[in-house]
Design brief:
The complex is a heterodimer.
Chain A: E1 3-6, E2 11-14, E3 19-21, E4 23-26, E5 32-38, E6 44-50, E7 56-59, E8 62-65, E9 75-77, E10 86-93, E11 101-103, E12 107-112
Parallel strand pairs in A: 2-12
Antiparallel strand pairs in A: 1-4, 3-9, 5-6, 5-10, 7-8, 8-9, 10-11, 10-12
Chain B: E1 5-7, E2 10-13, E3 19-24, E4 31-38, E5 42-50, E6 53-57, E7 64-68, E8 74-78, E9 87-94, E10 103-104, E11 108-112
Parallel strand pairs in B: 2-11
Antiparallel strand pairs in B: 1-3, 3-8, 4-5, 4-9, 5-6, 7-8, 9-10, 9-11
Chain lengths: 113, 113
């Protein structure tokens, strides 16, 4: 079946540091890949997505590239802010699995001033 | 604000009881999804409805059931509650059933004592 594995947190960084959150996936077909973000007390929000190999999703300074050869979709940001503190979820949807989102376990990011 | 409304925000009940969680999707969205978020299981897909019909089923226990009404709001019924059912239950909605963006509500925190 489909699965998503992401690095365990918490990840603690100082403001303006470089961020990488690793995400790898297993899927039987050709999934679309997503990063969702959950701010404290809120539901998940779509941060970015990529639908095919070598696509790069980007939003609010965050980027992730769909790497089929390494089955990865790592999230990066060049300079984090305190307001980026949240839980980040990597996810995939696979047409063969009914397009349901399969989520990773989430990675908590804490950015200190 | 995602436009998805979940009530109640918090629910405290005892083992063996039954509760109903309610979700109103974004205006115009036909699909409703239910997810369970717990510390040990992460974010698990439970069930999806599209325009009143069950569309997909995930890791939903037999003690749990859901439905989507003609006005498109959905209810998740949890019965014979156990301590392990304590979790954050999210509802999400989308326009259709394909690979599009999901909008999440802020969740119902269920505590079973």
């Amino acid at each position: 079946g489909n699965s998503v594995t992401q690095m365990e947190g918490p990840v603690t960084l100082s403001e303006e540091a470089f961020l990488t959150i690793n995400c790898t996936y297993t899927a039987t077909g050709y999934p679309s890949l997503f990063w969702y973000v959950q701010y404290p007390g809120e539901g998940l929000q779509l941060l970015l997505k990529a639908t095919k190999a070598d696509d790069k999703g980007s939003n609010k300074g965050f980027e992730a590239t769909y790497r089929k050869e390494t089955t990865s979709f790592h999230l990066e940001k060049g300079s984090v802010q305190v307001s980026d503190s949240a839980v980040y979820f990597c996810a995939l949807s696979d047409l063969r699995a009914g397009n349901m989102l399969t989520f990773g376990g989430g990675t908590r990011l804490m950015v200190k001033p | 604000d995602s436009g998805v409304t979940q009530t109640p925000k918090h629910l405290i009940t005892a083992t063996g009881q039954r509760v109903t969680l309610r979700c109103s999707p974004r205006s115009g969205d036909l699909s409703v999804y239910w997810y369970q978020q717990s510390l040990d299981q992460g974010l698990q897909f439970l069930i999806q409805y599209y325009n009143g019909e069950e569309r997909a089923k995930g890791n939903i226990l037999e003690r749990f059931s859901a439905q989507q009404f003609p006005d498109l709001h959905s209810e998740l019924n949890l019965s014979s509650l156990e301590l392990g059912d304590s979790a954050l239950y999210f509802c999400a909605s989308s326009a259709g059933t394909g690979d599009e963006k999901l909008f999440f509500g802020s969740g119902t925190q269920l505590s079973v004592l």
